[in-house]
Amino acid sequence: MMVFCENIRKKYGELEVLKGVSLEINQGEIAAILGASGAGKSTLLQILGTLDQADSGEVKLNNISLNKLKKSELAKFRNQEIGFVFQSHQLIPELNAMENLMLPGMIAQTSSSQMQERAKELLAYLGLENRASHFPSQLSGGEQQRIAIGRALFNQPKVIFADEPTGNLDSANAEHVQELFLRLKSDFQQTFVVVTHNQSMAQIANRVFTMKDGVLV
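^ that's the sequence the OP posted. Answer follows.
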């Protein structure tokens, strides 16, 4: 089991966003979380990905209880074991594609030679070798999102959390992202948890969860 949570609850003021959510996701699965806006999908994803904290309940990733980690331990765990992909690519405009890819390695204080080698490996896998020195403004939306996915993969995380990863893409580029997720699952047993409104993205998932009013239905 790669992702586990039990009875997760979260309030913002008087608004109860998550009302006791429990789920399990196995290694190598693509799990999709569907639901209307305001159902609690992104809040759940942020809690599973350690970007937010539940008011109560337990979260485990790769059988490690995140509730028991200190703040510094959690930051290190997040950098080394978790990857994130967002709807907006969130690339740094002043850095080129290769430098954006290497950011997680810089945070982990990986040696320059190892980072360069890993970045070249990922650029080749993503079919973007000829874009290494291009800045985000010189890349298409689809290329930017592939760089963002490469950045998420840089430290070989156990799980990637993706929040509407095809939300800003046209149908052709959205399909390329779906194909890339399937290839990563097949080649590396990569685990994905994806919040999406895209039905075709949901169709490639091994497991589909639907949220409504803060609960799984």
